[in-house]
Amino acid sequence: LDILQDIHLEFEYYYPNCLHDVLNLIFEQNDSSKLSICLENLLQLILIDERPLLNNRSIQSTIWSLIDHFSRLLNENSINSNLILQICLQLKCYETQPTYEQILQIACSFTDIHMKIIEDSDNNLIDNLILWRDALLNFIHFKNHDFHLFIIITLIDFIIPKLSPFDKLDDANINRQPIDTSNSLLEQNLSINTINSNRALSRSFKRNLVNDRFTKVPFQYIEQYTILMTSIFNELIYNDNTQKPQLLTCLATTLIDNILPDSITDLQFDDDQCKTPNERNLALIKRLDEQPLVWILLEIITTDTNTFQLCLPIIRCLLSALIVQWENFRGEDRAKTYSKQLTLSTNLIILLKKARYLPSPLNEIYELFPFITAYDCFILLLNIWNYLKQNQQLLATKSQQQNIMRDSLYFDPIRFVIQTNIADVGHIVEHFLYLQLQTTVSIT
Predict the structure, then answer these.
(1) Which domain covers residue 307, as residue numbers?
(2) Does residue 374 sit within a domain?
(3) Cβ atoms < 10 Å from Cβ of 391
(4) From the CB of residue 156, how many other CB atoms can be counted at a distance below 10 Å?
(5) DSSP string, 155-169
(6) Would you say residue 6 lies in a domain?
(7) The model scores a pTM over 0.70
(8) From CA 88, how far away is CA 135, in angstroms rounded?
(9) Shortest CA distance to 196 belongs to which of 289, 260, 100, 108?
(10) Domain total for the chain?
(11) Within 13 A of 315's CA, how many CA atoms are on the CB side?
């Protein structure tokens, strides 16, 4: 410890491995009082050390050589986590890449400390999350594909944990499996022997990373937290365009695994699904209402039409549940009476519009929702279901957005709803003028 305190002045005169050995010894002893002083000094050193990273005597190279210790301390010593995150924020990309196992360890450590910051939920929650985000973004900018992959999987497994398809509608998050703090995420996952050989993206690897911890973000911080996490996922996906398709596929498969585990994986829009209530679909509505970040992640996935195809089970289940709910409401009630269903229906149509799965004017019907009745919403969403059912084979092709069908059969329900509510939708009817509204219209 004395060496560290004097090293500001006499670092050049020490044996090159001296700092490495001293740090290694202190880290292994795991003495909290010494660790704090050690990390404070190390942070000061890294800020003033101007030697090239490739120089074995630089602070940067020393830290990289001890990256295993830093990853371990990050999730074991929450007292010193801020200091370690500040050190991680200053690190530069090292030419000698960490091993595959070290990359996994670093990713798990970032997720572990993310959990602990939220679990603590103190007055500095947002400040701590911003520091965590900045340190993570620094590592994301190193453009290591494996790191991006692991971070996407581990973060989603925490933010959007698996939901059993048999969960009842009235299940509460507080009744979920208790948080296990006995082991870190890394320690839990490394107990699986197959993980080291499973270097490719696959479902089996993803399941090995499942962790049942889940802590709700305090309500007053949800908006800030959502913005912060959105910036991270955008950076993860778009930081390296060469890996974008693979990362989007990873995001989509992890999301579908967690939101609809053991779901039917075919993409068929069967009539029976939109006629009867389904517990899994109702649980899905509850989850999407509670977790706005899911919509943002789905919106990111819409930038690749082929990848969005993987999310069609979510779209199908959500659409069928909304159709059943709108039909069961009092038909003459205004749709805005049911704010949750109104928001979900609007988000769903906007999502399909961004994914280019609907032609105009079908992709504009969300503008009508606030001004029509519950039964009208049922008519419009059932029309969307019929359209997707009729064109599901076309939607599965790569050129779906160019060849998408514009059958006038699907325009009639929109004409009917507009004319029925013309007094309320008159101010937006210009968006639908090309439907050639007539005096008499049939919905059959």
Answers:
(1) 267-286+301-444
(2) yes
(3) 20
(4) 24
(5) HHHHHS----TT--T
(6) no
(7) yes
(8) 6
(9) 100
(10) 2
(11) 31
Each residue's pLDDT, cut to its tens digit, for the chain (444 residues) gives: 555 555 544 555 455 577 788 788 888 887 777 888 888 888 888 888 777 666 666 788 888 888 988 988 887 766 788 999 999 999 988 777 788 888 988 998 999 899 888 888 778 899 999 999 999 999 999 989 999 999 999 999 888 877 554 443 333 333 333 334 444 444 444 443 333 333 233 333 344 444 445 567 888 898 999 999 999 999 999 988 888 999 999 999 988 888 876 555 555 666 666 666 677 777 778 778 778 889 999 999 999 988 998 888 889 889 998 999 999 888 788 999 999 999 999 999 999 999 988 888 888 899 999 999 999 999 999 999 999 888 877 666 644 444 455 567 788 888 888 888 888 887 877 767 655 544 433 333
Tokens of 317: 């289940």
Q: Is 286 helix (H, G, I), strand (E, B) or coil?
A: helix
- CA separation for the pair 129, 117 (Å, rounded): 7
| 232 shares a domain with 271 | no
Q: Give the pair of three-digit tokens for residue 15.
A: 């044996």
- Joined tokens for residue 162: 């698996």
